[in-house]
Amino acid sequence: MNSTASTDELPSSTAPLAGVRVVEVSSFVAAPLCGMTLAHLGADVIRVDPIGGAADYHRWPLTEDDESIYWAGLNKGKRSFAANFRDPQAHKIIRDLIIDAGVLVTNAAGRDWLDYDELSAIRPDLIHVQVLGRADGTGAVDYTVNAATGFPQVTGPENLDSPVNHVLPAWDVSCGLYAALSVASAVYRREITGAGTKIVLPLEDVAFATAGNLGYLAEAQLGLPGRGRFGNAVYGTYGSDFTTSDGARIMIVALTPRHFRDLTELTGTTSAAAALEAALGVDFRDEGVRFEHREVLGGLFAKWFREHTVAEAEAALDGTSILHERYRTFAELASDPRVTNNPMFQKIDQPRIGTHLAPSTPMSFDGEHPPVRTAPANGDDTAGILTEHLGLTDDEIDALAAAGSVRTQQKDNA
């Protein structure tokens, strides 16, 4: 925390990072998600972009007016500073903002004015987070990283020959949260020791670490049989999807003996499952055994689902311990009470986008979620930031804008 933090910047339960200022020079998902997470937690996050916006400023999905819903979603609660990234004067200003803030988060590469050694020579306690594609500095994005992980080879229906990418940018999301955790950890360390930190976070290593932590790599290194594709089945336990009489699909997971017992009782297959155990000489209390015999068990349970509507099935399942959920579209989820009545989601009037429910953090603090703030437009806060943090006068700011070094909304609206 800055030693000059005012009383209204002091941490509260929903703003534990109040008083921390972060400069973010970023684009796409991981680094912006880091900055937004920190902003949700009370940090003052200044996103620095080229004049007109970075490569993600108009990324899909778009409104009918070609405004990026995606960009607004990942930049809530930040302030926007727009500068000419080709202008040495702008480089100096951005450097000064970073030195003043003391924390930089970036995924920009090859920019000397963002170099840790140069910046830390001026401010030794600088916290500098560099998100890379690969550890060697070469470029990579979520979808190319994913191709190297092995996950596309085990995703999708059985007997499919081609790889299947997941739609969710899982590595970007994980990387962004790791980056936010690294900032919070480094800020805590700086408070205790006064030391700065250089943090390097390769997107590829996030994916590889996850594959290792979940046992996929050790499984291969130990010479165990290669993992296959199992469709919607859950590897190593019992999980499957079933179709109801009205064509809906429900995912069922039975992790424990109790889950499995309730599933057989619900579907009226207790005796049949017991007979199957005896015939096969197995014990379905073992989740691995349930996985091995998932197809025949699925045949037992499928009849019950085919004879019930989704409403009937959900009502019956709700009275059991069985883990279940109906497959939904984004549109169905958006109108679901778990979103519309969820205190994590708060109504905002997002300029250029419209009024909608937007999420805060999934964590609540002392029973409250941090407030949701809107996202700025490119350059919305340039003038205010130059005045507040660098002490520039209106005339000095106007001169910078006139020279094309920065973009201010005052200049745009004149």
UniProtKB/TrEMBL annotation:
SUPFAM superfamilies for the chain: CoA-transferase family III (CaiB/BaiF)
Pfam families linked: CoA_transf_3
Recorded superkingdom: Bacteria
Record carries keyword Repeat: no
Alphabetized InterPro entries for the sequence: CoA-transferase_III (IPR050509), CoA-Trfase_fam_III (IPR003673), CoA-Trfase_III_dom3_sf (IPR044855), CoA-Trfase_III_dom_1_sf (IPR023606)
Keywords: Transferase
GO molecular-function terms, A-Z: transferase activity
Residues spanning the signal sequence: none
Keyword Transferase: yes
Protein's name according to its UniProt entry: CoA transferase
Organism from which the protein derives: Rhodococcus artemisiae
